[in-house]
Write a structure and sequence with these properties.
The protein is an all-beta fold and 319 residues long. Helix content is 0%, strand content 39%. The radius of gyration is 19 Å and the shape is globular.
Length: 319
């Protein structure tokens, strides 16, 4: 695993450009700046991709939304600026749940927030120890947000499993996959299983990556020994309700991969379509438009590109 040092990125400026003639100035649509380690989830009720936080030499705390046509800055109020928060959409309660992240001064954070599409509200609830670069998904069959792993302050890897029902956090397991971070995770709604792949046990240059597949059924983890993608970390994963498969994109153990894979509970299959080479991108199902949305991530520098995967084809949506 090659874990790049964080590089500075210049946010995109939004300018009103005057033409040489006396015509009114035109306005360039706003865009979220290219950042490392943002959090993202798709708000199914409102049909919006919600993006929060990230880092470019400065920690960010803005909330951006993509409505299918353009980006808009939704709010700058809410959770404190941070790197690598975990977000998931709670279908039953129709709000986005955020947990954790990190800053240089505070280390790994352990706060819980909820976003209803209008504002963020911190939930005064005790929960998992602080962490960043973990994974958070929503188990729609049981109405629980599921959290696994991540990195604590000082880079200590975690292997605990927690669930949040909107009232309290409960630790469900402390065994299963080896301690790790930068893994991929998605909830397979067709089979009622949370699927985990890859990650790394060490935040250091050229550290080894995992290439294992695990499933959480709500009670225990089971390793699924099937061939699949090569060992990698920084992967993006989401459930595709159209194909009824879990889709994995990108990641790497060296140069970032452009590969896409699908998992049906029996086997991993590499898709013929290749998307943008990315590490640490966010992948989420756009249920209204029957596609998966891939946002951000990085190669040598962070990206604010938005891509869509529909069927067997990737296309760049914005900017």
């Amino acid at each position: 695993m090659r874990f790049e040092a964080i590089l500075s990125a210049v946010p995109l400026a939004v300018l009103a450009v005057a033409t040489p003639s006396a015509r009114p100035a035109s306005t360039v649509a706003p865009l979220p700046p290219p950042l490392y380690s943002v959090g993202a989830a798709f708000d199914e009720r409102r049909g919006r991709l919600v993006v929060f936080g990230g880092y470019d030499g400065t920690y960010h705390g803005d909330t951006w939304e993509w409505d299918g046509a353009q980006w808009a800055l939704a709010t700058s109020a809410g959770p404190s600026p941070r790197n690598a928060p975990q977000l998931a959409y709670d279908e039953r309660r129709q709000r986005i749940v955020l947990f954790g992240g990190d800053t240089r001064s505070e280390g790994a954070l352990g706060d819980t927030w909820e976003y209803d599409g209008t504002s963020w509200k911190q939930v005064p609830v005790a929960g998992p120890p602080g962490r960043s670069t973990a994974q958070l998904v929503y188990d729609s069959r049981r109405g629980r947000v599921v959290l696994f792993g991540g990195a604590a302050t000082g880079g200590r890897m975690l292997s605990d499993t927690w669930e949040y029902d909107g009232i309290r956090w409960t630790q469900r397991a402390d065994s299963g996959p080896a301690p790790r971070t930068l893994h991929g995770m998605a909830y397979d709604a067709a089979r009622g299983r949370t699927v985990l792949f890859g990650g790394t046990a060490l935040l250091a240059p050229n550290a080894p990556s995992f290439g294992d597949t695990w499933e959480w059924d709500g009670s225990r983890w089971a390793r699924i020994d099937v061939p699949g993608p090569s060992a990698r970390d920084h992967v993006a994963m989401a459930y595709d309700p159209v194909s009824r498969k879990v889709v994995l994109h990108g990641g790497g153990n060296g140069p970032p991969s452009a590969e896409s894979w699908a998992y049906d509970g029996r086997a991993w299959t590499r898709l013929t379509a290749e998307g943008p080479p990315r590490r640490f991108a966010m992948l989420a199902p756009d249920v209204r438009n029957r596609q998966l949305l891939l946002y951000g991530g990085f190669d040598r520098s962070p990206s604010n590109e938005l891509w869509a995967l529909a069927g067997a084809a990737w296309r760049r949506v914005a900017p």
